[in-house]
Write a structure and sequence with these properties.
With 187 residues, the protein is an all-alpha fold. It is built from ten helices and no strands. Helices cover 66% and strands 0% of the residues. The longest helix has 28 residues. The chain is elongated. The mean pLDDT is 88.
C-alpha cells in the first residue's frame, strides 16, 4: 500500500519526495512508513523494484481475449508493454534526474520479486506474448515463441523512436507493420 501510494509521487518528484507526502497519499501516519522501511532510500528502492516488476504487465497480457483477431490482441499487447515501459521510465528517470542512483538493480538483486532476474523477467513476458500468437500458429512463419521475441523487439524499439524527429507510431501501425511488412498490399 505504501509503495503503491508512493509510485506516482516518486515519478513526479524523484528522490525529492518526502515521507510526509508518501504518508499523506497512503492515508497513514509518517511513523508507519518507518515500521515497514528502514529509511526513505529503502522506500525508493521498493518503488523502483515495483516499477520494474513484470507482474502488472503479465496480468494485462494474460487478460487479453484469445477470441479476438491476432491484430487486435497484439494492439492490446503493445499498449500493455508501452504502459509497463512508461512506468519503469517514469520512476527510474525521475530518480536519476533528481540525482539518485539506485543502490542496487532490483531485477539483478531479486528485489522486484524473489527468483526474478532481468532474463527471467523478459522470458516471462515473452512467454505471455507467445500465448497470444498460439491460436494462429498455423499461419505464422515463425513459432509463437520466436514471433513473440521479434514482436517484443518491434514494440520496444518503436517506443524509442518517439521524440527523435519521427512522429510516434500508433499501436495499430506497429502491429500492421509487424504483421504485413513495409510493402503495400499486392507488391
Amino acid at each position: 500500500m505504501i509503495v503503491q501510494a508512493a509510485l506516482p509521487l516518486v515519478a513526479e518528484y524523484g528522490a525529492a519526495v518526502t515521507t510526509q507526502q508518501i504518508a499523506r497519499a497512503a492515508g497513514i501516519g509518517e511513523g508507519t512508513i518507518f515500521r515497514v522501511f528502514a529509511d526513505k532510500d529503502e522506500v525508493l528502492d521498493a518503488c523502483l523494484a515495483e516499477a520494474m516488476s513484470p507482474d502488472r504487465v503479465l496480468r494485462e497480457l494474460v487478460s487479453i481475449s484469445l477470441d479476438q483477431p491476432l491484430a487486435d490482441r497484439l494492439v492490446e499487447a503493445i499498449e500493455a508493454l508501452h504502459a509497463h515501459l512508461g512506468r519503469m521510465g517514469a520512476v527510474a528517470g525521475a530518480l536519476m534526474a533528481s540525482g539518485r542512483r539506485p543502490r542496487r538493480d532490483p531485477l539483478a538483486s531479486g528485489e522486484a520479486r524473489p527468483g526474478l532476474d532481468r532474463e527471467t523477467s523478459l522470458a516471462t513476458v515473452r512467454d505471455a506474448l507467445a500465448e497470444l500468437f498460439e491460436p494462429d500458429q498455423d499461419t505464422l512463419r515463425l513459432s509463437p515463441e520466436r514471433s513473440a521475441q521479434v514482436f517484443m523487439f518491434a514494440a520496444s524499439s518503436a517506443g524509442r523512436l518517439a521524440g527523435q524527429g519521427v512522429p510516434s507510431l500508433t499501436s495499430a501501425e506497429i502491429v500492421d507493420m509487424f504483421l504485413h511488412g513495409a510493402l503495400a498490399a499486392g507488391r
